[in-house]
Structure formats: structure tokens, C-alpha cells
Amino acid sequence: MARLDRLLANLGYGSRREVTALVAGGRVVLDGATLKDAGAKIPVAADLPRRLTIAGQPVDPPAPLTLLMHKPLGVVCSHREAGRSVYELLPARWRARIPALSSIGRLDKETSGLLLITDDGPFLHRVISPRSNIAKRYQATLDRSLEGHEAELFAAGTLVLEGEKDPLAPAILEPTGPRTANLTITEGRYHQVRRMFAAVGNHVTALHRDRIGGLSLPADLEPGAWRVLSTDEQAAIFT
Q: Shortest CA distance to 67 belongs to which of 167, 204, 217, 220?
């Protein structure tokens, strides 16, 4: 159970005073009945958007919430980094949600593809934990043709990136053309994929993530689009 005014304020519908005004104006309806008391306690579950409407529209999903986004090029994943962010692709009020939404790991501005966004702290930490050993697959387009030795080197677990001391964990390189390849890694070091190819004298000209664990980016999800991740899809990440 949650207090109505606190719940809606935490979902970004305004301050508690503004939410009280929404209720007083008859704009909040639960199970077909107009609510009159902003302090009323209501049950909160995943089906809330089917039961509660605000000004005739389904209420936003309550926490915990996890989204799957097809991140487009040209946007950043950080709340602090300059430039347009992935959060601007979501409804404006979602930037006022409590707890706040955060990306699970990051894709840089010039990388597209599968991005997870959540307000579920335990889920976030489980996905990024080294103990989970979750594989992430990237489609890379390269400036130069592959020479043939890269797959063996990446798989060896001996490659040390410039400026680092510890070797990378083994990674799987699958060439898909003379200058294209899929690279699957289990770590998340800074600009890792780009730096791995730089270490073998190549340059990544385009990068796209299409898979995290057992979860693939849906073919019908356009760049910039997103949807709520189902419980089954969340579980698939760890398979």
C-alpha cells in the first residue's frame, strides 16, 4: 500500500501539493471510481497502470521499473555529461521520478543499440557485477580489414590495454566480413571494444550493441524507441 499523493509525486506528476490539486479536480480514477482523498492508501502492483488513470491516461508504471531502449547515435547515457541524453527520450516527468532512473552501464555517444534503464538498484548491481559474468555482444565496423590473428589474441585472455596493468578476460571475435565483426565481452572497461581494436592497429568506425546475456535487441524496436522490460526478459539476461 502507498499514500496516493506520495506515490504520484514520486512518479513525477508534481509536488504533493500539485498532486492534491489533481485529486481535488477529480482527475485521478482508480478502478473506475474517482478518488477524493489525496492521502488515501492504495495497493501498488505491476497492474497499476491498468487500474489507475490520471486525467484519463494510464498512470506511469510504478517502481521497480526496467526499460529496454534502442539507443540511437548522438545521445549520452549520463545525467551529468553535456549533450542530449537518453533520458530526454522518455516522458519529461520521468526525470523527476523517485527513485531516479539510471542506465545499466553506458554506451558512448557514438555507439548505438541495446541499453537497459532502471530504478531497481539490486537488479542494476546484479547485471553489472563481475560475478554475474554477463556477456555483451557488439557489432563493429572497422577502418581496415581484419588480419586473421585478432580472434586468437582476444580469446587468449592476455591482451593488456594501453594505460592498464591487468589483462582483459577472454573475448570472442566472430568476423562477419572483411571489415566487420561481432565481439562478445564479459567486462565493461572504458571504451573497451574500441580500445581492443586499437590495440591491434585498427579503428572502429561504427559500433552497435545487440545483445546482453540472453536478451537480444528486438528487430522491430526503432532507434530512440523503448519499452518496459518484462519479468521473463529480465530473467533471460542471466541465461
A: 217
Same structural domain, 81 and 141 = no
Q: What is the DSSP letter of 88?
A: G
Last residue in a domain, options 27, 58, 89: 58
Residue at a domain's end among 58, 79, 101: 58
Q: Are residues 142 and 189 part of one domain? A: yes
Is residue 221 included in any domain, yes or no? no
Q: Please tell me the total count of domains within the chain.
A: 3
Rounded to whole angstroms, how far apart are CA atoms 29 and 32? 6
Q: Which tens digits make up the pLDDT trace of 66-97?
A: 999 999 999 999 888 888 999 999 999 999 99
Instruction: Look up the pTM and report it.
Output: 0.94
- What positions carry a catalytic annotation? 108
Domain span holding position 182: 135-212
- Give 71's strand partners: 113
Taking the C-alpha atoms of residue 35 and residue 167, their distance in angstroms, rounded to an integer, is: 60
92 found inside a domain: yes
Long-range contacts of 227-231 (CB under 8 A, 24+ apart): 227/67, 227/68, 228/61, 228/65, 228/66, 228/67, 228/68, 229/66, 229/67, 229/68, 229/116
For 140-194, the pLDDT digits (tens) are: 999 999 999 999 999 999 999 999 999 999 999 999 999 999 999 999 999 999 9
